Amino acid sequence: MSQIEEQRLITKIASLYYEEGLKQSQISAQLDLSQSFISRALQRALQDGVVKITVMRPQGLHLELERELQQGYGVRRVIVVEATVPDDEESLKQAIGSAAAHYLETTLNSDDSIGISSWSSTIRAMVGHLHTQSGRQAAREVVQLLGGVGNKGAFEATLLTQRLATLLNCPAYLLPSQSIEQSVQSKDRIMQMDEVREVLERFDSVTLAIVGIGELEPSQLLRNSGNYYTEEMLKVLAERGAVGDICLRYFDQNGQPVLDEDEEFVVSMALPKLHDVQRVLALAGGQRKVQAIRGALKGGFVDVLITDLVAAEGLRGAL
Questions:
Q1: Residue 179: is its pLDDT beyond 80?
Q2: Which pLDDT value is given to residue 264?
Q3: 132 burial level (CB within 10 Å; 0-12, 13-18, 19+)
Q4: Residue 291 pLDDT exceeds 60
Q5: In 3D, which of 219, 212, 236, 215 has the Cα closest to residue 301?
């Protein structure tokens, strides 16, 4: 656990307890932590001098901004990080990934069934920051929520899903399909295959979904995979007002899906299904993604958002 992530969590808990007057049981429920963890964190806050007369905030934390976004968008939790190197995309992804790894390690329950979008460089950064949970099974299973994209994509998606399951000492259920099929009919045929249907049925048991939020324009990572929506289809999505996607399911600025299910070529968890998941953890940042993140928040698809300061200020300006 990095020092800044530990300080961030301890300070968050102390602020909720001492400044907002929440009970330990309420903090436990809000942050998905055990009450014993809350008690120990409050003791550490006193020992480390975080709590004196007021709660002391280490540099780089933005608790007021987090609280404002939580209240403004009606989400359970927002974590705002700062990139080590400003305006550097890789630094941004690593900062968000590190915070996400810390969130996962401190809130994960051994009964959790984790769904993972599996084709996101920010999620890949999160997995890179995770520590092996040696000696215990940290989750019930890891389920791939989005098929691999192209030949290279399938390998990358499988590797990411399997790597997370290995770190958590639990089984992995891989989705053996492309993300985007050639037609609705092709998608329907694939979804009837036994090995695909077995994984799709596990979507119902997912308790924690880890997803990225994409823009309408495909990322370079997605382009390099060799299989994404055609320019013609991207034009259709743009005409319908698409601003972003989760698991390649596109939505508009108000969080409404822009394609009906009978128009979808994608083999992944559908947007309405996210509403049934206990916790949806979304990782996304950067000025370019503000509109997409805002759409995802307005659609009610996100419970916990980990983003960067630039995007967070943009989201606050859009309230």
A1: no
A2: 86
A3: exposed
A4: yes
A5: 212
Kindly list the domain boundaries of the chain, sorted by start residue: 1-59, 62-317
pTM of the predicted structure, to 2 decimals: 0.82
CATH topology of domain 1-59: Arc Repressor Mutant, subunit A (1.10.10)
Whats the size of the chain, residue-wise? Answer: 319
Spatial separation of the C-alpha atoms in residues 132 and 168, rounded to whole Å: 7
Q: What are the structure tokens assigned to 192, written together?
A: 């009837």
Q: Hey, what CATH topology would domain 62-317 get?
A: Rossmann fold (3.40.50)
In the numeric block, the tokens 């004196």 are attached to 52
The CA distance from 229 to 180, in Å, is 7
Average pLDDT over residues 44-57: 74
Counting Cβ atoms within 10 Å, is residue 69 exposed (0-12), middle (13-18) or buried (19+)?
buried
